[in-house]
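FORM 7B: Structural annotation worksheet

SECTION A. Query
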Amino acid sequence: MTSTLKGITLKGSTELVAEFFSFGINSILYQRGIYPPETFTRVTHYDMTLQLTTDPKLKNYLTNVVSQLKEWLFECTVQKFVLVITCLETNEVLERWQFDIECDKSAKDISAPREKSIKTIQAEIRSVIRQVTATVTFLPLLETPCAFDLLVYTDKEVMVPDKWEESGPQMINQSEEMRLRSFTTSIHKVNSIVAYKRTDSA
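SECTION B. Predicted structure
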């Protein structure tokens, strides 16, 4: 990781944010029961216990997505990263985990490290992941088999790889929202919000 004890560069910031998304997606998929718990393994990171998938297809998919995301983070061309949970039977959107990404594009031209330690950034990330885990206590139960999709919003001029498909925003009808904590590397800032389908709409 390209960073110093007292500062962080664009490359170091990109690595930290991409790593957060990797652990964050795994945490949401585990906590929301999208994949069976026995297909996850416990690891320690950010001074906390996290769950990582052992499913080969899912691992490969997430590695490819995060790898592409890392490129766009480094280029400062990504605006949002969204995890959508849908009902497998009806394709209805039940939850939408949205991460808004702000990037200080001046970091592309100024290579001097920013004055923020990795330890401080990781502490902020730990708070966000703890909050993601805690949301399970109030989110409605997902009572049907569910699938998930990942959406990435980029700047318009960005060339998108052929294997990526164009998609609509996949919003939720009659939703409630909860804003989660944010974190910043001083180059990238990530704001999180979860939207979920109201269960009292009937």
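SECTION C. Observations
DSSP finds three helices and seven strands in the chain. The two ends are 51 Å apart (CA to CA).

SECTION D. Sign-off
Analyst initials: ____
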